[in-house]
Amino acid sequence: MATSILSKRWLWVWTSVPILDLQDTPFCRTDPNLRFRQFVDHVLILNKTVSLDKFCLKFNLVDHPSYVKTWFWDAVSRDVKELDISIHGTESLNLVWIKYTNDESVSRLFAGCYVLQELVLHKQAGDNTTFSTISIPTLKTLFVRFATTGRCRHKLKINAPVLKQLNLEDNLTLEFDLEDVSSLVEANVTVSWLENRHIPLLKALSNAKFVSFHWDWYAEMKWRNFRPYRLFLNLVQMELHVGYGGWDLLSLFLEFSDHLEVLVLAKNDNCRGLGFECSWKPPKYVPECLLSSLSMVYFKGFEDLTYQLSMVKYILKNARVLKMMDIRSNGDLPLDSKIDLLKKLLMFPRGSKACQLKFN
């Protein structure tokens, strides 16, 4: 098009080229997406090529996906040999702010991903789906965030035999069906309420070595199904971020983790809720991990609260092989309070002679 300045005969030669490489940049847009949409529309209308060798399209996120669909089918109708579409702001196969046709369309999409190793899936309100099946034999990393609203129950089914890392955020009534995650090594789970519907998820994490849980509250759960055996068979490091109504589960999680070596405790921002202080009850019997494997404990956001002191005192007294208890106080505590707190901590008996107390 630039060389058409030299000859008018060259003015429309570009309408016959079999390769279209169209890229959007922030420098050519006044109204977001508008000028580029108009540009692509005009190019496709004026280009007379019956068969395209390549159609490359790189652009920013658009407000109306129907435009992209039109461009896509225009290229397909010309028997395009190579199709390259990139949307700035997304990486890999990240599926964020997607509105699907129906449940089946999601399953068909994943079924066609034969070599996919990492998947980021964010489900939002109004995406037309209530059931998601992720069956990908090559998947190694999965980030799933369910943040939809409404009373409709959603279901997540995962079959990923080589999955190593799972990050899951669940803020709705999500039901789980985890067929095969036997290779899982690391899991990060965030829920508002921990309840019975999460039991299949907890069972699926039994082979993981590193687990991080975030929850604010928990409902009465049917833990008796776990009593005959230990839940987290291979777990060596567990991190718990707990809100106001969930600290009682610490005792149960310790009972389920015979080989735990590192424990990280932290409180969520709402840990002082409704004007009441959090509570904690020690386990009836000393967990096996305290007697044989727990060597490092980190407590973040320590505020000299009764339940916190009780937990620290219990662990220091009963952890036989503990090497270090690292307590990091809340930055709001005045210096005098920190000194008094340190004196309290130093008075607690220790079950391990090798244990060092670190207070920051």
What tags apply to this protein structure?
3-stranded parallel beta sheet, 17 strands, 360 residues, 8 helices, alpha/beta, 11-stranded parallel beta sheet, single chain, 22% helix, elongated
Describe the structure.
The chain has 360 residues and is α/β, with parallel strands linked by helices. It is built from 8 helices and 17 strands. The protein has helices spanning 34-46, 65-77, 103-111, 199-204, 249-255, 288-292, 306-318, 335-347, and strands spanning 19-23, 54-59, 82-87, 118-123, 131-135, 141-146, 154-159, 165-170, 174-180, 186-191, 193-194, 210-218, 237-245, 262-267, 296-302, 324-329, 356-359. The strands form 3 sheets. Strands 4, 6, 8, 10, 11, 12, 13, 14, 15, 16 and 17 form an 11-stranded parallel sheet that branches.
